[in-house]
Specification:
Number of domains: 1
CATH class: Alpha Beta
Shape: globular
Number of strands: 11
CATH superfamily: Aldolase class I
Length: about 325
């Protein structure tokens, strides 16, 4: 399977594993890369020297392409970027910020830069900033999300029509059928998060992985838009957020309830009551924890089978 995404990243399949906080360490990234996709280390939950360690371990675990996902709201962003350069990382996905801030710096170092967007407006800004490709992420996605609530399958063709650089679809994609549908709508590749969060190599707590398996349609909701929109499982913490909303809270009150390390508490430490459980709507379709290699192979097999079936119609 060869296209402009596989060529750009030097990978076998146009499948990117999302760089999720507390989930995407070196074990997951290297496993996906070894299976033919592009693995991403999620820097958003790592101190700078922890990220360095993960990059070094990933380099030892795979000779394939891998990258690092960097939320630009990270408080020690300068240190993170310096480590990425020092460790000779070849691919960086940026998110949650202005792509103009770091794109030129990274590209001057010979690094491929991809930016995550949730609208046509920001896709155009990313292209103007000089990124090599964009991830257009729809409302269905887990974790932090766009305020516009544009669905993935609405966003893909609009973004594809507006830009000339490669487009990677994200949000609500976990199967070969979903991948094929996204590419029919104009995507050059897909980024998959939730499905890999429920993998053997995911660094998430086993409690959180089981929650992904247990989640059904309607069990997640996009909330906390005043701070940074995030899709959460409807647990005790989520109910506390909704109760506070009924009191017309200020941003400071929301920040106080959110506190610090809520995502770590839920995703990494497995506190299903008080933690922030971030996952996509597609979790309702995930019913088994499997090795990343098996997940990727199943996606490709289904993609090819459904594509062949369509050709017969």
């Amino acid at each position: 399977m060869f296209n402009n995404i596989t060529k750009l990243f030097n990978i076998k399949y146009p499948i990117i594993q999302g760089g999720m906080v507390w989930v995407s360490g070196w074990k997951l990234a290297s496993a996906v890369s070894n299976a033919g996709g592009l693995g991403l280390i999620g820097a958003g939950s790592m101190y700078p020297e922890v990220l360095r360690e993960h990059i070094q371990k990933c380099n030892k675990a795979t000779d394939k392409s891998f990258g690092v996902n960097v939320p630009m709201l990270y408080p020690e962003i300068e240190k993170i970027m310096d480590i990425i350069v020092e460790e000779n990382v070849k691919i960086v996905f940026t998110s949650a910020g202005n792509p103009k801030t770091w794109t030129s710096f990274l590209k001057e170092k010979g690094i491929i830069v991809v930016h995550v967007v949730s609208s046509v407006k920001f896709a155009l800004k990313a292209q103007e900033a000089g990124v090599d490709a964009i991830v257009c992420e729809g409302f269905e996605a887990g974790g932090h999300n766009g305020r516009e609530e544009t669905t993935t399958f609405t966003l893909i063709p609009m973004v594809k029509k507006a830009v000339t650089i490669p487009v990677i679809a994200a949000g609500g994609i976990a199967t070969g059928r979903g991948m094929l549908a996204a590419m029919i709508l104009g995507a050059d590749g897909v980024q998959i998060g939730s499905r890999f969060a429920a993998s053997v190599e995911s660094s998430a707590h086993s409690n959180f992985k089981q929650t992904i398996i247990d989640v059904k349609d309607g069990d997640t909701h996009l909330t906390l838009k005043e701070l940074a929109p995030v899709r959460l499982v409807k647990n005790k913490f989520y109910q506390q957020v909704q109760e506070l909303y009924r009191q017309n809270p200020t941003e400071d009150q929301l920040k106080e309830l959110l506190g610090r390390a809520r995502a770590k508490k839920g995703i990494f430490e497995g506190d299903l009551e008080n933690g922030e459980l971030e996952i996509g709507q597609i979790a309702g379709l995930i019913d088994e924890i499997k090795p990343s290699k098996e997940i990727l192979e199943e996606i490709i097999q289904e993609f090819n089978e459904v594509k062949a079936l369509i050709h017969k119609l």
